[in-house]
Amino acid sequence: MKKLVVVILAAALSQVMAEKLRFDNHTLYRITPTTKELVEVLRQIEKEAYITGYNFFSELGIENTPVDILVPPKHAQKFKDDILEHPDVKTELLNENIQGAIDAEGVRPASRANTFGWTNYYTLDEINRFLQDTAAANYSSVTLLKGGETYLGRDILGLKLQIGSQTGRQSVFIEANIHAREWITSAVATYLINELVHSTDPEIRELAESYIWYIFPVTNPDGFAHSHTNNRLWRKTRTPYSFLCFGVDPNRNWPYQWMTGGASDSPCSDIYAGPFPLSEKSTRTLSEFIDSVGEELVAYISFHSYSQMLLLPYGHTTAHLDNYDEMMEIGRQAIIDLSKKYGTQYVVGNIAEIIYVATGGSMDTVKNKFQTPIAYTYELRDRGQNGFILPASEIIPTSIETIDSLVSIFKSYRARHS
User: Fold this and answer.
1) What is the distance between the alpha carbons of residues 351 and 55, in angstroms, rounded to a whole number?
2) pTM above threshold 0.85
3) What whole-number distance in Å separates Cα of residue 127 and Cα of residue 149?
4) CA-based nearest residue to 329, from 252, 413, 393
5) Do 84 and 42 contact (CB within 8 A), yes or no?
6) Using CA atoms, how far apart are residues 123 and 130, in angstroms rounded to an integer?
7) Which pLDDT score is estimated for 18?
8) Crossing angle, helix 183-198 and helix 124-137, to 10 degrees?
9) Over the range 144-181, which residues count as b (16 or more CB within 10 Å of their CB) and which as e?
């Protein structure tokens, strides 16, 4: 009888997981707890989120630090009573029905099958086809790369762009979509590839020809595919760790300062760091690829969303380590240059200072291991109205302003080191 119950539950779970989740009437709030006691109340909600249906769009920090929380309708009244009306909290309604934003987001329509552009979002297969086609059409300067492999056997594909005659430590590594739901990141990465290959703008041509570029638009293919087919808000990988809990946060699974803060040892948590560093096949194989080019890297850049931030290492401490002062000066100019076309406002600073302690990240590991001179993590648009559900109409402006900031970063660095 017990075995039968398990089989029935497994079948029911399989059916549920095969259906695409909807988030009708799920409300996004920005909550700022002003006491440690209220932080602990929110922390308990966070621990049980995989059961209750809450979704923390940003990670819970200390008191007076905002956190964005998606509240399911079944808990709306209790959340109002316990949190929204609490005397020690500041609240802001960001979106009263996140499903509306998902419906209007802009996935490529069937009428545009077999096309690729930047007015819609695309699936993993479509992005991989773009990479393959770009390499085939520009075979003398663009090489298709396999940067690793996932638990489910998917390849982590990217491109090597060698357009000029670079020598020495002149390579740039860019990774995107390590968190599955952050679709804008892979869109910006593919736009950047297209510009580096095809743009006639003199500054972009100089950028393209001054470095060897390794660009991987989707470094969490299993999670990204799942975010298209099953759960738009999925963040982690898809490795099973229990009957109900899947995946590791692949940006908490890297070796440097692993599990020393801002990560979880619970397999059900969205910030689960894994049972040990590089436990995920995707992070382990990607790290092996990075090791093969690490000594030649002048820059490691990671695209994330959202919040409009340019973040420096490290996530485990507020101490200003390595070449922090230089990177802050370059970063300040970069966000000024980023803002010129559309007025988009960024902030720049160390991860632990600007947002919260977060350890086991890819950028910190590469920076520490190879002393990579330039290391930044972008948190792209927006500041939170729709969270991760950025309308496709913002792909091109987000991409353009990001490229403007990259031009600024490398121009500033070359001026200092020529």
Assistant:
1) 22
2) yes
3) 16
4) 413
5) no
6) 11
7) 59
8) 10
9) bbebbbbbeebebbbbbbbbeebeeebbbbbbbbbbbb
Distance CA 241, CA 267 (A): 6
C-alpha distances in Å from residue 396, one per residue of 102, 197, 342, 390? 18, 17, 11, 12
8 A C-beta contact, residue 282 and residue 151? yes
| Dihedral (CA of 332, 335, 340, 346) sign | negative
SS3 state of residue 247: coil
Least confident of 55-64, 311-320, 389-398, 401-410: 55-64
What does DSSP say about strands 155-162 and 297-305: parallel, antiparallel, or unpaired?
unpaired
- Whether 63 sits among the annotated catalytic residues: the reply is no
Name the packing angle between helices 395-417 and 183-198 (round to 10°): 60
Exposed / middle / buried, residue 88 (Cβ in 10 Å: 0-12, 13-18, 19+): middle
How far is residue 275's CA from residue 280's CA, in Å, rounded to a whole number?
A: 9
Looking at per-residue pLDDT, the higher value among 244 and 157 belongs to: 157
Q: Which SS3 state, helix, strand or coil, does residue 31 take?
A: strand
Exposed, middle or buried by CB within 10 Å (0-12, 13-18, 19+), for 392? buried
Per the listing, tokens 């020690």 go with 88
Q: Residue 168: what pLDDT?
A: 67
Q: What is the token pair recorded at 121?
A: 């979002």
| Distance in angstroms (rounded) separating the CA atoms of residues 318 and 307 | 19
Catalytic, out of 182, 379, 394, 401: 379
Alpha helices (runs of H) in 19-84, residue ranges in sequence order: 36-47, 49-52, 76-79
Confidence of residue 369 (pLDDT cuts 50, 70, 90): very high
User: Dihedral of CA 383/389/394/398: which sign?
Assistant: positive
Instruction: Please list, in sequence order, all residues whose beta carbon lies within 8 angstroms of the beta carbon of residue 400, skipping any fewer than 6 positions away.
Output: 341, 342
Note whether 248 and 280 are within 8 A (CB). yes
List the structure tokens of 214: 């390794």
Nearest CA to 131 out of 66, 201, 221 is that of 221
d(CA 260, CA 130): 39
Average pLDDT over residues 159-178: 89
The rounded distance, in Å, linking the Cα atoms of 217 and 127 is 8
Rounded to an integer, the average pLDDT of 293-316 is: 97
User: Is residue 311 within 8 Å of 351, Cβ to Cβ?
Assistant: yes
Residue owning tokens 């594909």: 157
